Every structure is written in structure tokens, then in C-alpha cells.
Amino acid sequence: MSVSGPPTDPNAHITVRDLTMAYGSFVLMRDLTFTVRRGDVFIIMGGSGCGKSTLLRHLVGLKAPAKGEIWYGAESFTRATPEQRESMLRRFGILYQSGALWSSMTLAENIALPLGEFTDLSPKEIREVASLKLALVGLKGFEDYFPSQISGGMQKRAGLARAMAMDPEVLFFDEPSAGLDPISSHLLDDLILQLRDSLGATVVVVTHELPSLFAIGNNSVFLDPESRTMIASGDPKELLAHSDDPRVRRFLTRGGENGVTRDT
Amino acid sequence: MGVTESTAGPATLSSERQGDGTLTVRLAGPWLLKHGVPPSADLEQQLAAQPPKQVVFDATALGAWDTGVLTFVTRLGAVCADRKIPTDRSGLPTGLQKLVALAEAVPEKSGARREEVDESLLERIGLATLSGRDAAVEMLAFIGQTAVAFGRALTFRARYRRSDLMEYIQDAGAEGLPIVSLISFLVGLILAFVGAVQLQSFGASIYVADLVGIAMVREMGAMMTAIVIAGRTGASYAAALGSQKATQEIDALTTMGISPMEFLVLPRMLALMLMMPLLCLYSDLMGILGGLVVGAGMLDISPVVYFQQTAKAVHLGDALGGVFKASVYGVLIAVAGCLRGMQSGSSSSAVGEATTSAVVTSIVLIISACGIFAVLFYLMGW
Predict the structure, then answer these.
(1) Domain finish residue from B48, B74, B105
(2) The pTM is what?
(3) Structural domain containing residue A25
(4) Most CB contacts within 10 A, which of A103, B41, B119, B126?
């Protein structure tokens, strides 16, 4: 790949070019090239331990790529100065796998922290915004609870409320349905879609939950741990219908077609 | 042929060679791990010595079974596979057959098994040097980041919550008082006691007050406070930061554009820097009180005389030196605690290691600094 310079497609929100991820000298994935369009629900999928969450960590700047570039619109993320990067980070909302709410603060304080740091709102207005965000995820009235006092599913939703605190342009989700029962997981999927539609945000989801990725995804990248690179990309439903790659088919059909068989 | 069988007694293993070269392996009785399973070494030797054409299993007399029989069958299967002897497992219970098939379904992943690599002495020295260099670089980087955070704090640009700072001050200062008092009082008492026994023989008991006063104010007050606070507060900093790392709370701060150095490390460091000198003064006082108890109780010195003697011996410079050392120790404890916490891995055992390492690092730093101060103060004539 010898393409350089900012991406020209105005619709491209996140452009990843020739990305190599490595831990020291151990290369986890190489040659990742894909584009996330504005308004996409983009799925990063693949088997356990193949580097999905690590790719997400690269996209949000928690890990620096060994090689390659990441662009947000026409701004380079990898070449940004610390100040530029900070302002780019402020347009992201991230829901971590465990929720990662700050345990020493109440739910309202968790949401209020970025608002207090980065806006000129008065404490009263901040409190109002925090309550509103909690109401959006169905946690009205839980403002003064500490994260340890609510259930895992509620922590995830509170984490989502915090991720939305600054009205982000891109929402990242790391395994949103991990540890949730099927109904809560379904409700969270619905919530993700509703938020995407109403906020107009681009959504990037790391998941291996088939029902969820078919329900919400309209674009994806498939990481394969054996060949250490991406082996497919596109709409997951299209991949299921038309992909010729046996590895992709096996994954998307739960190993169904001549995969794991069970004699009873 | 010699066949022993029993259905009710202990588990038995026997084998019988058929005329056509087939070896029948008979399992009988209850094969349960808790009762022990029969040894199979003889059978394996026999297989190696005179390979039969085929191995079949007969489990008609097999009673209850569990993993004990499963390991036997898979082990025998591996021996047979090595020697290319076909096995027929149809004589085994169906459940057992399925389990064996399941265990053999996925071939061993090549390269997955960890092998003990025997490193030469030179190799080990080299690796240790490299990791030592990495650790030193990390520590310097951390100290640099701390300095930057302090710079921002001095110009009021640092992002941290004042309420957090107040909480850390309360935790390190006021809540540390009882344990600091107890330890300092006892140290003063011990110093006085040791001194009294020696000084009494010269008839110079009154100098116990000088001994305790100078020792506490110049050295022991600051050092004992530092060691207590390293175990109490430094350890809790490492554990708190380590678990915040494990739950991705630190990642969440970073990706929000809030520096964890400013938000988490800075207020902790400020709290210890502010509280250590105060705790040290308090500790000095408690140590002198401890000395007074020995002086009054054992040496019959009146408290007033004891205090006058102490006041004559101890100068303001001594006290200031001790307080200065205490604030340096405070910085060292905070650096060690926060550094180990931020370096912690993301598992629960890593948090435990970080805590241990924080206390060890703080104590090493405190004692080394104490030695350096002793030399410096001597050279400066303080």
C-alpha cells in the first residue's frame, strides 16, 4: 500500500490503512485496511483472543500502532499532536467491557466529570444533563448510587450514559453483551440502534455474539488469528449469504455447516 | 491362563492373549480415583516387549468408573498408537468411549506446550540487565510525568478534584494518627529504656532526655512515620490504582482526555507531601512522651526536669531537618505507591504483587534516602 495523505471520500469517518498491531516483537495482526462510513454500525468480529479488543484500543489511542495509519475524517490520529489528539478524544464515547465506571464516584458524578472538565456549564446544569443521560438509558433515579450498588447490566447502561455525556461523534463498544442475559443484551442492542439514529453517531462494536452482530451491524471486519490478518469485510448478513471463505462461514453459522457436529 | 477377576472387591486389571495374537484387557470392579486404580506398568511393558496384533477391551465386569479409568484407557491408547497396534474400544461403556473420543478429537496444538528452557548464566545476567534497564527507564519516565503534572498544578491547570485531595489528606493524615502515635510512643520508650540501662551505670540518667529527644527529632520520628505510612497509605495507593487499572477505569480517564497522572497520582502525592511533615512533628512529640514515661517511672526524673532537659538538647534546626526529611520520604512513598499501582498488570494477582512491591520499594527508598541524608547533613555540619 503506498497511498498516503488524507482520505478523499467525505463519507469515510474512520480510515485504517495498513495497520500492524504488535506487542513488542510479537505481531498480533498485520495489513488491516478498512473504512468505516459515517452512520455505520461497524462490527469488529473474530474468535476469542484474535485481537478484536486490541484493534479497538488502537482506534481510541490506548495503544500505538507498530505500523500504519488511522484517520478520523481528514485528520490523522496517529500523527496528531497531543493537543489535537485530546480534542479528537473528546469526540469519542467508549463503553468498556466491564463498564469501567469510576468506583469512587456516584453515577451522576461519573457522567458529570467530563462535563465539568470540558464545558462551562454550571453545576446545576451539569446535574440536569447527567440526570437526562441516565434517563436515556433507563436509569432515572439512580443518580446517587455508587457503581458497586447496581447490577452488571445497569453498570453497562450507566457506562453507556457516561460514553454519551459529551454527545460523541463515534461510539465504541467493547463486547457490549458480555455478561448480560439475552434479554438485557437485546435491549442494549436496541438502545445502540436508537442512539445511532437519533444522535447520528458512528458506532464501532467489538463482538462475537452472532444474534447481536446480525441485528445491528451493517459493516464489519473479520479478523483471523491463524493468518494474523483480516480475511473478510462488509455487511455481516452479506457475508453470511455470499462469503466463500470457510473460516468466515464457520464463524457466522456457529460452526454449523460441517463444523461441530453432535450425535445424540 | 492366569486370570484374576472380581466384581465386588477392589479394581482389578488383567490381560489375556488369544491364539490369534489379540490381547484382551479386562477391567473389573469399581475403578474410582478415590479408591486408587491398579498399576498398568506391567501391561505397558508387555505391550512393548511382545506387540500383539490387536488390543480389545472387556469391561463386562467393570463396576462404577470415573476419570481413573479414562486416564488408563487414553494412556494405553497412546502406547498402542506409538507402536501402531490397532485398538478396539467397543467393549468399553458407551459414555467412556465418547469421553475418550472427545479427548482425542482435537490434536495437540504444536508449540502450545510450554517447554522449560535451560538458560545459561550469561543469558540470565543479560536478561536481568535488560529488564533492569527497562524498569529504570519506566521509573524515570514516571518521575518526569509527575514533574510535568506538578508544573501544571502550580499554574492551576491540572485536572483533579479538590474533594479527592481532601479525602486523601484525611485518610493519610488524621486517620493515620493512631498507628503513628502508638509506634512512635513505643520507639521513644524503647530508646529511653536502652539508654537508661547504659547511662545509669555512669550516673548520667538525666541524659536519657537528650538521647531520646535528639534521636526522635533528627532521625527516628521521620523514619518511623515514613515506614508506617509506607505500609498503610503507600500500599493502599498501589492497590487502588492497580485495581482501577484492572477494571479499565484508568483507560476510561485516558480516553476522555483526562490525564491519570493529574487526576489520580497528583492529589495522592500532594496529600502525602502535606501530611508527612505534620505526622512527623506529632511522632516526635509522642516519642518524647515515651521517653518521659521511662524517665519518670524508672529513673525518677520529674516530668518538668525531663522536658527542660529535652528543650535544652533539641534545637529548632534539628526539628526542621527532621520535618524536611519527612516530606522527602512522603514524596518517595507516593512515587513508589503510585508507580507500582500504575505499572500493575490487569489481574487480581497482579494487584497483590503491585502492593507488595510498593511497600518494598518505599522502604528501600526511605532507608537509602536516610543514609544519604546522614552523610549530607554531616558534611553540611547540620
Answers:
(1) B105
(2) 0.79
(3) 9-91+201-253
(4) A103
> Which of B88, B105, B122 lies at the terminal end of a domain, its last residue?
B105
The three three-digit cell numbers of residue B186, written as one number: 513505643
Closest residue to A100, CB basis, from B164, B251, B257: B251
Give the pLDDT of residue B256. Answer: 87
Question: Which CATH number belongs to the domain containing residue A17 in this structure?
Answer: 3.40.50.300
Q: What is the ipTM of this complex?
A: 0.83
Q: For the ranges A2-11, B70-79, B152-161, B338-347, which has the lowest average pLDDT?
A: A2-11
The residues in B 214-253 lying below 8 A from A, measured between CB atoms, are: 244, 247-249, 251-253
pLDDT digits (tens, 9 = 90+) for A161-197: 999 888 899 999 998 888 788 888 888 888 888 888 8
Q: How many domains does chain B have?
A: 2
DSSP 3-state percent helix, strand, coil across chain A (nearest 5):
35, 25, 40
How does the average pLDDT of chain B come out, rounded?
A: 89
Distance CA B176, CA B234 (A): 12
Q: Which residues of A touch B253 (CB under 8 A)?
A: 102
pLDDT tens across A86-135, in order?
Answer: 888 888 999 998 888 998 899 999 999 988 888 888 999 999 999 999 99
Interface contact B255-A114, CB threshold 8 A: no
Quote the CA–CA distance of A166 and A162 in Å, as a whole number: 8
Same domain, B85 and B208: no
- Neighboring chain A residues of B249 at a CB cutoff of 8 Å: 100-103
CA distance B319 to B330: 16
Reading the block at residue A168, the C-alpha cell is 460523541
Report yes or no on A45 lying in a domain.
yes
> Which residue from A36, A204, A107 is spatially nearest to B255, judged by alpha carbons?
A204
pLDDT reported for residue B7: 45
Question: Residue B158's closest chain A neighbor by CA?
Answer: A117
Name the A residues in 209-248 with CB < 8 Å from any B CB.
none
Q: Is A100 close to B248, i.e. CB distance below 8 A? A: yes
Together in a domain, B301 and B368: yes
